[in-house]
């Protein structure tokens, strides 16, 4: 029989690995024959065993539904999807030496003129910057006043932007950047736990270590200020830049812009000004990210709801007993324990500008926009200096500048374009010389 012939062939070629005859498992692997020790030679004497093994294999039951569900699913992507099988039509260029050389030279020819245009546009911007923190040592929150002469070499067309610049002030410090409550700034009433990042400038007196103390509201109601919270809370609002600037002509002293004669929301106060505060913040900030809390928005009287929730600038009718520090702070909207240091208004556009944190230690922030032409000549800026910088070895500047279609004065971008273009041209010429002296066939 076939099984007998196959068994004899296996015995004659014993040097090869023994495989199962008839395409089935070995005899001692069949059900009921485990450990029997019978070898393939027995198949020659028991041909029916080979047939029985076929029956064992063929009679195995098909897998049940439960077994099929437990079987691992294939991770092979769908063969019908050209995208999954990466058979999408694509253009695969062959980067021959001619192509590489041409691309480098073309990029260089494009980048160099772009850099020249950027630098020319930047040179057309007129910028005047003067440092003033070193002029006089100011002490206390009352500060002091400086007169800074400024000479404008050319006519400055509107809008002329007035900035203040700080050096060595790290707004990007993680602890400083987290010290705020966006929920509170947007007008919500979050719990103290939700404003824990504001510590230790969350509650009045917390930073100065002032214990529980009371203040009188409206002359009748007394309450503990430790139950209130600052609005806005946190270190960023506490450290808000509060110097003010007045720009005027040197000859006749005509005031062009008095930056302090504006309300928090940018409405001018007093005589007409030739500058504006309205558009110094991003359009998404006023009324969206920054707004007064609902308890103050809904209050139509001069008194706040009872009991009040905030300690600050909202005009609460506190009983002002000027012999007590707590009453002076409450009546004037100061930080408790820091006489003269006002709590900012969350609707103040200057606060919104300040809370757009800078990524570098030297930065500028927009103060006002001058809407009239500044002719070449002599001017002066009167500075009310209240922001101390000596503790962190900082510097303060006032800046007047125009803008171009690329923004402010900056030669870095143009220089990068020119440098990149020159490098591309040099690489293209180097590859060309190499190709001409020692050419190589593509693909070799």
Structural write-up:
The chain contains twelve helices and 13 strands. The chain has helices spanning about 1-10, 40-45, 45-60, 65-70, 95-125, 175-180, 180-185, 235-240, 295, 325-330, 350-355, 410-435, and strands at about 125-130, 145-150, 160-165, 215, 220-225, 230, 245-250, 255-260, 275, 310, 365-370, 375-385, 395-400. The strands form four sheets. Strands 1-13-3-11-9 form a five-stranded antiparallel sheet. A four-stranded antiparallel sheet has the order 2-12-7-8, with no helix packed on it. A two-stranded antiparallel ribbon has the order 4-5. α5 runs antiparallel to α12.
Short structural description:
By secondary structure, the chain is an alpha+beta fold.
Helices and strands in order, then pairings?
Blueprint: H1 2-12, H2 42-45, H3 47-58, H4 65-70, H5 97-123, E1 127-131, E2 144-152, E3 160-167, H6 174-178, H7 182-185, E4 214-217, E5 221-224, E6 229-230, H8 235-238, E7 244-249, E8 255-258, E9 275-276, H9 294-297, E10 310-311, H10 325-332, H11 349-354, E11 363-370, E12 377-385, E13 395-401, H12 412-437
Parallel strand pairs: 6-10
Antiparallel strand pairs: 1-13, 2-12, 3-11, 3-13, 4-5, 7-8, 7-12, 9-11
Counting DSSP H or I runs of 4 or more residues, the number of helices is 12
The strand order across the widest sheet is 1-13-3-11-9
What is the residue-averaged pLDDT?
Answer: 80
Radius of gyration: 41 Å
Number of strands: 13
Oligomer: single chain
Shape: flat
Structural class: alpha+beta
Largest sheet: 5 strands, antiparallel
Return the string of H and E elements: HHHHHEEEHHEEEHEEEHEHHEEEH
Low-confidence stretches: 14-31, 34-60, 298-307, 315-320
The end-to-end span amounts to: 61 Å
């Amino acid at each position: 029989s076939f099984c007998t012939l196959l068994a004899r062939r296996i015995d004659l070629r014993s040097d090869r690995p023994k495989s199962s005859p008839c395409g089935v498992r070995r005899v001692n692997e069949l059900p009921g024959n485990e450990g029997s020790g019978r070898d393939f030679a027995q198949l020659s004497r028991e041909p029916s065993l080979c047939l029985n093994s076929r029956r064992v294999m063929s009679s195995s039951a098909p897998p049940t539904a439960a077994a099929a569900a437990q079987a691992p699913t294939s991770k092979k992507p769908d063969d019908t999807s050209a995208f999954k099988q990466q058979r999408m039509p694509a253009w695969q260029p062959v980067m021959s030496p001619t192509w590489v050389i041409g691309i480098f030279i073309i990029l260089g020819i494009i980048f160099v003129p772009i850099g020249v245009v950027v630098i020319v546009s930047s040179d057309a911007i007129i910028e005047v910057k003067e440092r003033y923190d070193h002029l006089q040592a100011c002490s206390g929150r009352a500060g002091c006043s400086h007169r800074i002469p400024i000479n404008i070499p050319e006519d400055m067309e509107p809008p002329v932007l007035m900035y203040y610049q700080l050096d060595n002030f790290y707004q990007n410090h993680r602890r400083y950047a987290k010290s705020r409550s966006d929920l509170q700034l947007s007008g919500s009433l979050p719990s103290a736990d939700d404003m824990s990042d504001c510590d230790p400038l969350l509650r009045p007196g917390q930073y100065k270590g002032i214990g529980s103390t009371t203040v009188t509201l409206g002359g009748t109601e007394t309450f503990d200020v430790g139950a209130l919270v600052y609005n806005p809370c946190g270190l960023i609002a506490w450290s808000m830049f509060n110097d003010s600037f007045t720009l005027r002509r040197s000859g006749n002293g005509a005031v062009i812009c008095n930056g302090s004669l504006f309300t928090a929301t940018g409405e001018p106060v007093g005589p007409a000004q030739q500058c504006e505060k309205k558009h110094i913040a991003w359009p998404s900030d006023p009324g969206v990210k920054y707004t007064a809390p609902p308890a103050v928005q809904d209050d139509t009287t001069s008194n706040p709801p009872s009991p009040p929730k905030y300690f600050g600038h909202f005009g609460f009718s506190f009983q002002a007993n000027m012999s007590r520090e707590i009453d002076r702070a409450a009546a004037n909207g100061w930080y408790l324990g820091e006489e003269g240091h006002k709590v900012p208004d969350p609707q103040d556009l200057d606060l919104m500008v300040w809370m757009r944190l800078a990524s570098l230690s030297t930065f500028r922030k927009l103060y006002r926009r001058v809407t009239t032409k500044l002719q070449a000549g002599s001017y002066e800026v009167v500075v009310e200096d209240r922001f101390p910088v000596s503790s962190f070895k900082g510097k303060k500047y006032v800046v007047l500048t125009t803008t171009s279609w690329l923004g402010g004065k900056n030669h870095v971008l143009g220089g990068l374009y020119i440098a990149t273009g020159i490098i591309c041209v040099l690489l293209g010429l180097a590859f060309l010389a190499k190709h001409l002296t020692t050419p190589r066939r593509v693909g070799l």
